[in-house]
Amino acid sequence: MNKLIKKITFFTVITTLLVPLIQAKEIEASQRQWINCVRFVNTQTLPLNVRRNMSFDNNVIGTVPRGAKVNVSYAQISGGTRWARISLGNISGYVDSNFLSFSHPVRTRINGTRFVNVATNLHFGSSRRMRHTPVQQIGRNMRVHVDYAVWVGGERWASIWVYHSDITGYVLANYLRV
Fold first, then answer.
1. To the nearest whole number, what is the mean pLDDT of the chain?
2. What average pLDDT does range 9-35 have in this prediction?
3. Number of domains in the chain
4. Quick check: 84 and 127 in contact, CB under 8 A?
5. 12 vs 170: CA distance, rounded Å
6. What is the structure's pLDDT at 72?
7. Torsion, Cα of 66, 68, 73, 77 (10° steps)
8. pTM, 2 dp
């Protein structure tokens, strides 16, 4: 019986000492994945608020759109939330890291009618790049069908076809309105 008590005591002491060390190593490893890295903003629809300090009570100093690629310098837990220090262009501040992902958000299925929202004509192309060869021009307020939108290089592109024609292609989604 005495040997059993010694073994239980030994096991308890070892467990008491080792478990916190193991947990600390796990936390350290999970923190390393947030140091000097790139992440993507992954919100449902709205842009992500960037705050001056690590608190939901702090002033919002800017926003970052869904799908944007941001630089993360580090992350730190404060008030039960892991806050990531991010920068994008001239915006630098803290965001809730729950809205950052390792990969780009998947394309958004839209399947609906939109209207061209430009002053004159909108050029659109056969690829999702700014420097594509324009396929066609479509006029202001022209009705188009949008199948889906996808983020490419920090910009949201819409796959469209023009009603009453066989013209298809891609345009920047911010040139379309409901």
1. 77
2. 59
3. 2
4. no
5. 64
6. 93
7. 10
8. 0.48
